Amino acid sequence: MRVAQTIELSPEEEAELTKLARSKVTSVRLAQRARIVLLAAKGLQNKDIAAELGVGRVQVARWRDRYAQERLQGIEHDLPRGAPAVKVDVNRLVELTTQSTPEAATHWSTRKMGAVLGVSASTVMRHWQAKGLKPHLLRGFKVSRDPRFVERLEDIVGLYMSPPEHALVLCCDEKSQVQALDRTQPGLPLKKGRAQTMTHDYKRHGTTTLFAALNVLDGQVIGQCQQRHTHAEWLKFLRKIDRETPKDKTLHLVADNYATHKHPAVQQWLAEHPRFNMHFTPASASWLNMVERFFRDLTSERLRRGVFASVPELVTAIDEYVAHHNHAPKPFIWTKSARDILQKVIGANQRLSSKQNKTLR
Q1: CATH number for domain 149-189+197-335, candidates 3.20.20.70, 1.10.490.10, 3.30.420.10, 3.40.50.720
Q2: Taking the model in full, what pTM does it have?
Q3: Phi and psi dihedrals of 258, rounded to 5?
Q4: Which residues pair with 251 in a beta bridge?
């Protein structure tokens, strides 16, 4: 039969333990351990001490034994808990994350990496956050290879940052193939504790193309929806711009290199209307056209969650959005100089070239 160790205290030890047990400053844990030892010194058994203090008998036995072996120092420090922490080879973790992929997968997850290194997923996540690594994210890019990139970049950025006097700068483009999508079942509205719902499948009811011209000065948008986006529709939109802009203003239109913008019929019309001046963005550099920012807002705010039973319903929704935007427009302010942009593009080209050279080797 196991018998609890006898605790004998000197007057100094009893005074010190009594002080700890009654102290309002010391930790609650240490005060409770002092009471356990004091009761043990009075000859109480572990089960009686546990009942009086409202703790477990095993806990009483643990601290009683610790005091018997190490005296006051034994109860001042907590016992070590659980298994010792596994040390992570951070350099190997970073190397695996940035220079390799897991078997039969394209990118690392915390669980896959944890299984390889023998650590928990939370440990992997902690080190990834400390190193700024995000393997789950993928960002697209496209570096322009246009031989006239510098010339066109400086031309368009110059229009944004130092527009000519007595002229309007209009960023023009088409948002083609905008689909009128109807859901197969009605969704549930947003409510407390539940997000809005929408079926993943849909019915197609046709498409439309939005032609838009964003005024860089004040943010106003001239918009027109048409069924197609050939040179005939582009000419129709140019005539709309001609009607809705002051006749005494020279117009500088920023557009991409889409073939319809350079059709012979378009060229002839532009020659007959000399106040129109075309400025083409470099190939694969649509981000230079500020109307793309308006298209992004239109998609996220009106189209992505929209439900349209027909193309006319879709066109009405787009026209209403443009009208609402023009009621209190805010211009998009261009801040990057051509030099800053060019430095980034040069750096990107150098990194791509070095990557391609390594691949060829």
Answers
A1: 3.30.420.10
A2: 0.70
A3: -60, 140
A4: 168, 276
